[in-house]
């Protein structure tokens, strides 16, 4: 009986470590990146499954009268994972809130969001536009009443807040990347060694972040 | 009126020239508007060259595009008094046409920048009362700028001048009105937008119902915005089936000690019920206590 339980929980915890680790990485990257990153729906659904599993295990524990200390340790583990997941989703929502118009205009950025986030971004933008429309734009003269453009003479959207992609980020390499070109002309080349810390412009290492070769911290 | 060849601007000599430069070159123009609405400054100060009009627009509604091509080395000829001088600034008109003394009092769109200064002076994450007085004044200013702008364009059309190419005093006068209007618009938008950002943050920090003190700082549209935005967040949360409004800080311990600030009464938490009377201390599950803490009914008790 006890060996059964041990095996079960060992398997569960082994799986949880990796996924929690992955979630932690996704969360950290999301937190440090100026723009919104790809939504890892598979990871999130796996994490949610495991959270549910852990909740059920905990209920079993309380029913079977397992030692309180063990229960509270499990509870703590659960709480932390839940926080991670919530914080991850929250961070993304707040980024969407901040750059709603910019995200809604670009198909590339929209494709990074989950279905639910896309719906949220859309309604977010509509609500904001309605608010600006009724408080400011409807009172301005003809030609100056666009949300995204300053006036009719603007040929492109020039009033959409965008994330600053050339800000600096702290990052840690996971493996040797080798000589890496930071700018387009090849004047700045950095040798990225495994497990080393760097402060670089986000724009230049964007590709590495997306490919998962470098972690933001 | 003669069509005068514009002189290159080296040292502006007329009294109003500094005003133009003040407006266009004022660091406030650039810093404030870029701060709240980042923009590409290469296009500054004028919008890009005109593109052919797609559809004809009635003359009195003619967009400003036509009169605003880039003219880096050109400015109003400085040896005669142009209409910019005669046409007193909106500020002056509003004040009864008195002679403006300092450069500040001559600057268009100064009121709008006051709104942003107010915003900036506020602690981050806090709000002051919506300044509807100044806000409405700026909206009125916008209307006046537009009227002046249209009048100048009409005048040029009546003189049979080509408004796309003519560079006379009316052109520059109109350009100033156009730019002032743009600046006013950017300031108003930035004001509303940044306030809206703070209002959104209340949803995360305080919850779906705002206390009275905050409610009275919002204007009607902002209240509505908060409500609709809360609904959007709520529908996301129910779609995802996970409550995102709890767990705002990383958990350290599953249980915390709390002090009850207001009588809450009998509450059932999990498998047992607790009577939460004012000033009593309890040892509760953090997840249970959090909802009361965010409503301000409890506080974490730290020894």
From TrEMBL, chain A:
Q: Name one GO cellular component term.
A: GINS complex
Looking at the record, the residues that make up the GINS subunit domain are: 69-135
Return the InterPro entries for the record.
GINS_A, GINS_bundle-like_dom_sf, GINS_Sld5, SLD5_C, Sld5_GINS_A
Q: Pfam families this protein is in?
A: Sld5, SLD5_C
Please give the CDD domains that the UniProt record associates with this protein.
GINS_A_Sld5, GINS_B_Sld5
Chief place where the protein resides: nucleus
**Residues annotated as domain DNA replication complex GINS protein SLD5 C-terminal:** 163-217
A biological process (GO) annotation for this entry? double-strand break repair via break-induced replication
Tell me the keywords, alphabetical order: DNA replication, Nucleus
Q: Where in the cell is it found?
A: Nucleus
Indicate the family of this protein. Answer: Belongs to the GINS4/SLD5 family.
Q: What the protein does?
A: The GINS complex plays an essential role in the initiation of DNA replication.
Identify the PANTHER family for this entry: DNA REPLICATION COMPLEX GINS PROTEIN SLD5 (PTHR21206:SF0), SLD5 PROTEIN (PTHR21206)
The name this protein goes by in its record: DNA replication complex GINS protein SLD5
TrEMBL record, chain B:
Note the Gene3D superfamilies from the entry. 1.20.58.1030
Q: Which GO terms describe its cellular component?
A: GINS complex
Sorted alphabetically, the keyword list is: DNA replication, Nucleus
Where composition is biased (Gly residues), the residues are 95-104
Which residues belong to any copy of the DNA replication complex GINS protein PSF1 C-terminal domain? 252-302
Q: Where is the GINS subunit domain?
A: 155-240
Superkingdom per UniProt: Eukaryota
UniProt feature, compositional bias: Pro residues: 45-55
Instruction: From the Swiss-Prot or TrEMBL record, give the protein name.
Output: Uncharacterized protein
């Amino acid at each position: 009986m006890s060996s059964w339980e041990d095996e079960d929980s060992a398997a569960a915890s082994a799986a949880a470590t990796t996924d929690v680790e992955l979630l932690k990485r996704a969360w950290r990257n999301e937190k440090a990146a100026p723009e919104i990153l790809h939504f890892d729906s598979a990871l999130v659904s796996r994490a949610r499954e495991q959270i549910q599993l852990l909740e059920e295990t905990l209920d079993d524990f309380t029913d079977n009268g397992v030692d309180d200390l063990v229960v509270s340790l499990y509870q703590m583990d659960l709480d932390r994972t839940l926080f991670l997941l919530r914080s991850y989703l929250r961070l993304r929502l707040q980024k969407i809130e901040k750059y709603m118009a910019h995200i809604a205009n670009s198909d590339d950025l929209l494709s990074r969001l989950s279905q639910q986030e896309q719906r949220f971004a859309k309604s977010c933008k509509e609500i904001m536009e309605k608010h600006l429309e009724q408080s400011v734009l409807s009172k301005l003269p003809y030609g100056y009443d666009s949300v995204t453009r300053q006036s009719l003479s603007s040929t492109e959207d020039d009033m959409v807040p965008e994330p600053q992609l050339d800000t600096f980020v702290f990052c840690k390499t996971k493996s040797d990347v080798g000589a890496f070109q930071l700018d387009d002309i090849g004047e700045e080349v950095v040798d990225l060694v495994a497990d080393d810390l760097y402060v670089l412009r986000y724009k230049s290492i964007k590709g590495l972040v997306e490919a998962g070769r470098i972690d933001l911290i | 009126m003669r069509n005068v060849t514009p002189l290159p601007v080296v040292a502006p000599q007329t009294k109003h020239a500094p005003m133009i430069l003040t407006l266009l070159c004022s660091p406030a123009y650039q810093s404030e508007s870029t701060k709240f609405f980042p923009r590409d400054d290469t296009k500054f100060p004028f919008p890009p060259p005109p593109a052919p009009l797609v559809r004809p627009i009635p003359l009195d509604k003619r967009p400003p595009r036509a009169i605003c091509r880039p003219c880096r080395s050109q400015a109003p000829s400085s040896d005669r008094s142009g209409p910019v001088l005669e046409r007193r600034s909106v500020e002056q008109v509003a004040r009864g046409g008195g002679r403006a003394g300092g450069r500040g009092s001559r600057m268009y769109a100064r009121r709008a920048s006051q709104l942003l200064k107010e915003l900036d002076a506020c602690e981050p994450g806090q709000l002051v009362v919506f300044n509807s007085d100044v806000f409405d004044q700026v909206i009125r200013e916008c209307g006046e700028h537009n009227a002046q702008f249209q009048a100048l364009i009409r005048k040029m059309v009546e003189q049979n001048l080509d408004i796309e190419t003519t560079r006379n005093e009316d052109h520059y006068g109109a350009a100033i009105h156009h730019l002032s209007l743009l600046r006013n618009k950017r300031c108003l938008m930035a004001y509303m937008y940044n306030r809206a950002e703070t209002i959104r943050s209340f949803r995360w920090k305080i919850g779906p119902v705002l206390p009275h003190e905050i409610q009275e700082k919002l204007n009607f549209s902002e209240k509505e915005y908060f409500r609709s935005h809360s609904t959007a967040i709520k529908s996301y949360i129910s779609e995802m089936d996970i409550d995102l409004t709890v767990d705002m800080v990383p958990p350290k311990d599953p249980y915390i000690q709390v002090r009850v600030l207001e009588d809450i009464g009998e509450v059932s938490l999990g498998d047992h019920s607790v009577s939460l009377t004012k000033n009593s201390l309890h040892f509760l599950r953090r997840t249970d206590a959090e909802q009361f803490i965010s409503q301000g009914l409890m506080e974490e008790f730290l020894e």
